[in-house]
Amino acid sequence: MYGRNAGKLLREVACSESGHLTSFNNILFDKVIQDCSEHHLQLQSLMRKIQDQGLDIQTTRNSDHFGAVIHHLSLIRNKRCLMAYMNHRLEIIRSLRWKVGRELPEEIQQKLTQSERDYFKNHSLALESYMSELDLELTVDMVPPKDPYIQVRVLEDIGDVLLSSAQTTLLRHSVHSLRRSDAEPYISQGLMEEFLG
Amino acid sequence: MANYYNIDEILMEEELVSVVFQVEANGVGLLDPGSESNDVEKGAKVDLPFWLAHELYSRQVVSVNVPTCFGQKTWKEIQADAACVDLRSRCPYFYELGCRVAPLVGDKSIGSSLLYTFAGRYKDALCKGHKSGFTSTPKFLPLLTKEESQLFEAARSSMAAFKKWRVGGSRLERASILGRKRKSAAEVQALNP
Questions:
Q1: Across the interface, which of B25, B171, B173 has its CB nearest the CB of A67?
Q2: Is the pLDDT of residue B83 over 90?
Q3: In this structure, what DSSP letter does residue B40 have?
Q4: What is the pLDDT of chain B when averaged over all its residues?
Q5: Could you give the CA distance from residue A182 to residue A120 in angstroms, rounded to a whole number?
Q6: What DSSP line would sit under B150-161, residue for residue?
Q7: Element (H or E) spanning B19, and its range?
Q8: Would the CB atoms of A84 and B61 count as touching at under 8 Å?
């Protein structure tokens, strides 16, 4: 009550490393919503009490009014906290599309709720349709490369893939010279690293 | 309201301040743990989170006392040596809360004292951020407020970025969000060739 649970929810976010997701805290989130309904009930009962006494609800400033004000403020506060919690997560989810790519690894998928997964998918689609309209890949490295090809070392077995040049088999610990644009998504997913020799 | 979604600002407003009720309020018994009925009486002294205290103050329901972290004891310690005072345990949002509380309590000295404190600690936090190593957590970090530790981190990461630029490591990296088992080793290598 009085925004304490909502504060806990946000403190959990503030303690986690910036830019990292934690699992959606369903339990606390629902508790805050329960608090909201409780405040709402109390608010209604106080308002009814004022009306039953035959007083004007707009101008009355008695102890019931101030009680109602406190419940009203708590409601607004809880709303702000819940919105901030969601907004914080959505900001991270949007940034994932830029940092990780179209496919999210399992460890991140698990931390998202179903609606957040849908949000990621739709955001990803929106970005892709914009990029195809511009005919420009926006998520690649911003600094122009000196060489369009790059030496990479494969860190995990990827298997047969079709890259822009040809079909290639990417086995663990093998070193390849790939087009930069082909290699970048694999590097950001942690499957390859740049081989500086 | 600066930013509706700003989590730091919301948490700053969560800090408790002590207030005295100037009127009665019904149906909010949980606010005052000492109260036996479901109401808060006139003259009751209650600790409220700042967001509630601030709104009620503007409606003249409560009067706000100076929070203990802005008391004489703190200022005396700061005058002795600002850099060594543990502000985080007093209030992690010391400066932000101070700025917001000052107009409510009518204590004119808080503003200048805050400025004195910040000026005394700013240079120290920034210099240590530039000089500190990249793996260890320095001893004085738990003394800093949230704002100061952000300043410290900014200095530290800009120094790391500078060193990396000078060495000329790989621009392409595994996304940091995917855990850190490989990243940390690569980063250490890039920093200490």
A1: B25
A2: no
A3: B
A4: 78
A5: 23
A6: HHHHHHHHHHHH
A7: strand B16-21
A8: no
Report the alpha-carbon distance of residue B64 to residue B56 in Å, rounded: 10
β-partners of residue A176 are A152
Beta-carbon-side half-sphere exposure of residue A153 (alpha carbons within 13 Å) = 9
Q: For residue A84, how many other CB atoms are within 10 A of its CB?
A: 22
Q: How far apart (Å, rounded) are the C-alpha atoms in residues B86 and B143? A: 4
CA neighbor of A155 nearest in space, from A139, A165, A134, A170: A170
How much of chain B, in percent, has pLDDT values that exceed 90?
A: 0
Q: E strand or H helix at B87, and its extent?
A: helix B87-90
Q: Measuring CA to CA, which residue among B97, B94, B115 is closest to residue B105?
A: B97
Q: How many CB atoms lie within 10 A of CB A151?
A: 14
| pLDDT the model gives residue B182 | 41
Given A46, A88, A96, which is nearest B26 (Cβ)? Answer: A46
CB contact under 8 A, A70 and B25: yes
* C-beta separation of A24 from A111 below 8 A: yes
Q: What is the pLDDT of residue B169?
A: 64
Tens-digit pLDDT profile for residues A114-160: 899 999 999 999 999 998 998 887 877 777 777 788 888 888 887 78
Q: What ipTM score was computed for the predicted complex, to two decimals?
A: 0.77
Contacts of residue A99 in chain B, CB cutoff 8 Å? 175-177
Interval B137-190: pLDDT, tens:
677 778 888 888 888 888 888 888 888 888 776 666 666 666 544 443 444 444
Q: Give backbone dihedrals phi and psi of B188, rounded to 5 degrees, phi first.
A: -60, -40
Distance between CA atoms of A28 and A33, rounded to whole angstroms?
A: 9
| Displacement of CA B86 from its chain's centroid (Å) | 12
Does residue B63 contact residue B107 with C-beta atoms inside 8 Å? no
Q: Does B178 touch chain A (CB under 8 A)?
A: yes
Q: Please give the full DSSP string across A87-139, using - where no structure is assigned.
A: HHHHHHHHHHHHHT-SSPPHHHHTTS-HHHHHHHHHHHHHHHHHHHHHT---S
**DSSP-assigned beta bridge partners for residue B48:** B17
pTM of the predicted structure, to 2 decimals: 0.79
Residue A108's φ and ψ, nearest 5 degrees, are -85, -40
Residue A62, token pair as written in the block: 């008695």
